[in-house]
Design goal:
Length: 307
């Protein structure tokens, strides 16, 4: 019985390591995926190889794939984590088939365990006002407010925010954002975000003494701010405002999508603003919109109002 990957000190067999690195290079240079995504692929595929103790990816069979999932279940991985592992393996297998390493698809016909898909959580419009409406004089808080006004105002992913450069803004109040797969989109920047960014740029000029740094948001060390720093600063801002619920960067993006959909009802526009490749990804917000409509109905309809 193969050992669990967590219980072995084995390194990947040379052939396995060779093709895994070629695959990661393909994802980086031909598909333009982020380093975070590459790390996820590497981690998932390494776990598969180690748990099965295979020396060669040609040893993958449908039975082996099912065995890898069974091992993951015994490790008490969440169904979503197991589904991610299978998805990573499926993409890798397609690459190996294109390279002539595998003749048949061992993942074909293998299903991941079903998992409840929770609806995105969002802040209300009033909650967002509590979070963002203060005026700050402290320099680091001026930066923080600019980051979160822009993230909420444009529905940005965390990585999209931290990768922004000063020159990504246009004169007609738009920002050029680089999303997943290096796909770019132009987004309108609202008044509140523009005002917050203008205030931050004054501070940024005072902070920055070295030449050549183009990052829009920087730390006091004059380096591009990291994803972890942004998440920590948002958590600090929520605590400062004594908010009753946890706040994370992705929740600002969900709040943006929900509020725009509730106001406009235009799902296609929300898809474009979020940078979703498929409308099905955006359609989860229709459930949230229905909840909003149901609440309006319950509170407004004479036959629905509670006594």
């Amino acid at each position: 019985m193969p050992k669990k990957a967590a219980e072995t000190d084995l390194q990947l067999a040379p052939d396995c390591a060779h093709w895994l690195q070629k695959f990661l290079g393909h994802l980086r240079y031909e598909r333009g995926l982020s380093s975070h995504t590459l790390s996820n692929y590497e981690r998932q595929l390494t776990q598969v190889a180690l748990s099965l103790e295979i020396q060669d990816w040609r040893a993958l069979t449908q039975t082996k794939v099912k065995q890898a999932l069974a091992i993951a279940r015994k490790q008490n991985l969440h169904p979503r984590s197991i589904a991610l592992r299978l998805s990573s393996l499926r993409t890798f297998v397609q690459y190996l088939m294109q390279q002539g390493i595998l003749d048949t698809d061992p993942v074909d016909g293998v299903s991941a365990p079903k998992a409840d898909k929770p609806l995105p959580k969002q802040l209300s419009v009033d909650d967002m006002a509590v979070l963002l409406n203060d005026e700050y004089d402290e320099e680091i808080l001026i930066r923080d407010q600019a980051m979160f006004e822009l993230m909420y105002g444009c529905g940005l992913r965390l990585n999209e925010l931290t990768s922004l450069n000063v020159f990504d803004f246009t004169r007609d109040h738009q920002v050029r954002v680089t999303g997943k797969g290096n796909k770019q989109r132009l987004l309108p920047v609202g008044k509140k975000a523009r005002e917050a960014i203008a205030k931050w740029l004054e501070v940024r000029r005072q902070w920055l003494t070295k030449e050549g740094e183009s990052a829009l948001f920087i730390s006091k060390r004059q380096n591009r701010i990291s994803n972890r720093q942004v998440a920590n600063r948002l958590n600090e801002m929520a605590k400062r405002q004594a908010m009753s619920q946890g706040v994370n960067p992705h929740k600002l993006r969900h709040s943006f999508a929900t509020h725009v959909l509730e106001s406009s009802g235009d799902l296609r526009a929300v898809q474009e603003l979020l940078g979703h490749a498929n409308l099905s990804t955006t359609q989860v917000y229709t459930h949230l919109d229905f909840q909003h409509l149901a609440n309006v109905y319950d509170n407004a309809h004479p036959r629905a109002r509670k006594k």
